[in-house]
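STRUCTURE:
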């Protein structure tokens, strides 16, 4: 049975998530997190994507995205996921060993401003719920961090 086509419309907001295959930890050191942040910045420039919020956790990540053109969400996510997978396999010398992510990314349409505000809080508070930090501003790998390297569009 074929997959359902994704909704991928300009100027709409999406909550996008993906998790490591087998829920293994794929972000183990500072350089692992920095790599994904660098790739987010590159993907943003390639597709002119608006990144409203993000959080990179040890075995998954959350993005709140708003594409400027129809189809850009898919282009952004394809480039980000495949490039990240390839670079991790090269860095860990595991080329040909299989998938990094458990499957296709999941995206959820954000319909209201109230939901958007709740979603950004949810995304940025992920490390607090996981007991990695006491305050979301202290998690260096997300948009709540004041000096993050990924440019956030508000």
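SEQUENCE:
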């Amino acid at each position: 049975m074929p997959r359902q086509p994704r909704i991928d419309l300009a100027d709409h907001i999406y909550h996008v998530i993906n998790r490591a295959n087998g829920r293994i930890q794929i972000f183990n050191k500072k350089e692992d997190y920095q790599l994904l942040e660098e790739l987010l910045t590159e993907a943003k420039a390639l597709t002119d994507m608006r990144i409203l919020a993000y959080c990179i956790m040890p075995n998954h990540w959350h993005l709140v995205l708003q594409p400027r053109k129809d189809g850009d969400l898919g282009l952004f996510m394809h480039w980000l996921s495949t490039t990240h997978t390839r670079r991790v396999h090269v860095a860990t010398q595991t080329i040909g060993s299989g998938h990094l992510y458990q499957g296709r990314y999941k995206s959820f349409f954000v319909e209201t401003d109230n939901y958007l505000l709740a979603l950004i809080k949810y995304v940025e508070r992920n490390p607090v719920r996981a007991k990695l930090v006491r305050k979301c501003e202290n998690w260096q790998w997300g948009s709540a961090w004041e000096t993050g390297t990924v440019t956030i569009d508000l």
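REMARK: The two ends are 39 Å apart (CA to CA).
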